[in-house]
Amino acid sequence: MKYYDLWNAETGNLIASCRTQGEALGLVRETITLNDREAVGCWALIWGDDEDDEAGEMIADGAGLADLASMAVPSATSVAPS
After folding, report:
1. CA dist 64 → 4, 48, 49, 80 (Å)
2. Of 9, 10, 14, 47, which alpha carbon lies 20 to 30 A from 79's?
């Protein structure tokens, strides 16, 4: 099963492991909202697969991760156009 991990690239610590990319980006957005963009400056989002140790790669890190999270719209708050 695919997973999405948020890592602190400076310390090598796992911040969170999520089932979806949207969930991971939501945590990034929440952290930015509660602190600021610099709070995720050393974070990296990496996907992997429990069934294939060779699969996976980095999706984004640092400012690019903050930008990606800011662009992602949470599906629960999406509003259909009228």
Report:
1. 16, 19, 23, 28
2. 47
Q: Tell me, what's the pLDDT at 74?
A: 66
- Give dist(CA 47, CA 4) in Å, integer: 4
Domain count, the chain: 1
Rounded CA separation 24/5 (Å): 7
Let me know if residue 80 belongs to a domain.
no
Tell which wins on pLDDT, 79 or 7. Answer: 7
Q: Which domain holds residue 59?
A: 2-74
Residue 79 within a domain: no
Concatenated DSSP letters of the chain: -EEEEEEETTT--EEEEESSHHHHHHHHHHHHHHS-GGGGTTEEEEEEETTEEEEEEEEEEHHHHHHHHHHPPPGGG-----
Residue pLDDT, tens place only, 4-15:
999 999 999 999
